[in-house]
Amino acid sequence: MKWRWVLLIFSFAYVIGWIVFAGFWYALAWDHGDIGYKQRDKEWEPCVANVENFKGAFLFSVETQTTIGYGFRSVTEACWMGGFLVVLQSVFSCLVDVVMTGCIFVKLARPKKRAATITFSENATIAKRGGKRCLMFRVGNVRQSHMYDVKIRAHLVESRINTGKTCEQLETHKLILEDNMFLIWPMVIVHEIDENSPLYKLSELMLREKTFDKFEIIVFLEGILEQTGLMMQARTSYLPSEILWGHAFTEFATPDEGHKRLTIDYRKFNSTYKVESTTDLSAKERSTSAQQIDDNYTFPPETYSDLRKSNSFENSSSTQEWNEHTFQEQESGYVTSVDEI
């Protein structure tokens, strides 16, 4: 709801309350015979002093509900209904104050604008990290106030295209990320591309020539604000054209000499650099190629000869000692021969 409607409802809630109770006070004065009592009988004791018309009843209603209390108009002991209306209007005034104050506080404390202070990197990257191929993107909180219980989720939404060149259906796949994190400084969020990842078949050629099925990676970040305890959510998405193959994010956090403070240079938040060791093959193609190399590898002939000699006991120390002992006792008829293996 926009602010103009909130302020309009806020004003009408009080004005309508004053008018309604002014009607009650005027009805009470009319029922008790207080209308124009000063002209009839100066000794008359009214239910509400100095309330002889609707204008006086309205002013008394405003004074009662806002507790102004000028003292010119007041309830007397002439009727019990006057005291009951005072209590009723006081309770109504408290309820209106609580409800309207709560509505304005919620309006001010809504985390709608807070989500704009959560920054995502303009691009996602695919490169090796820790020896494994990963999808990476960066997220940061530009405010000094922190969030806790921060959770981040990512889903890959792809469209399956049939032979008729029409969109057949949309499929959603979850990307495995680190669920909980403490977002006190910008972090790089990592998704490992393994055989269970929906990006397992994605290669640089597919990404560049758009031969891979059309997809979009949607990222959700949720957290609780420390000031209000309210939940906020920020969202972003990455198209194939926004994914950089073979790039990694530049370090932009610098500790001081005493390692007591960390300086964050947000000018480098979206900066990346080229990782030369990244191949253009998909993770699946790399895994298949490595398996084929292991299965088809043959040793050269000289390697077989070395293995044969190293595994035979012709050159072993025990065999050589036995041969020397045997050769020394040939006269006694002990002859030993070791066939080559």
From TrEMBL:
Record's bilayer topology term: Multi-pass membrane protein
GO molecular function annotations of the record: inward rectifier potassium channel activity
Sequence segments annotated as region (Disordered): 284-341
Keyword set, alphabetical order: Ion channel, Ion transport, Membrane, Potassium, Potassium transport, Transmembrane, Transmembrane helix, Transport, Voltage-gated channel
Composition skew (Polar residues), residue ranges: 312-321
Gene Ontology CC entries for this record: monoatomic ion channel complex; plasma membrane
GO BP annotations listed: potassium ion import across plasma membrane; regulation of monoatomic ion transmembrane transport
All copies of domain Inward rectifier potassium channel C-terminal, residue ranges: 118-288
Database matches in InterPro entries: Ig_E-set (IPR014756), IRK_C (IPR041647), K_chnl_inward-rec_Kir (IPR016449), K_chnl_inward-rec_Kir_cyto (IPR013518), Kir_TM (IPR040445)
Domain Potassium channel inwardly rectifying transmembrane: residue ranges: 1-111
Name of this chain's protein: ATP-sensitive inward rectifier potassium channel 12
Organism, as annotated: Holothuria leucospilota (Black long sea cucumber)
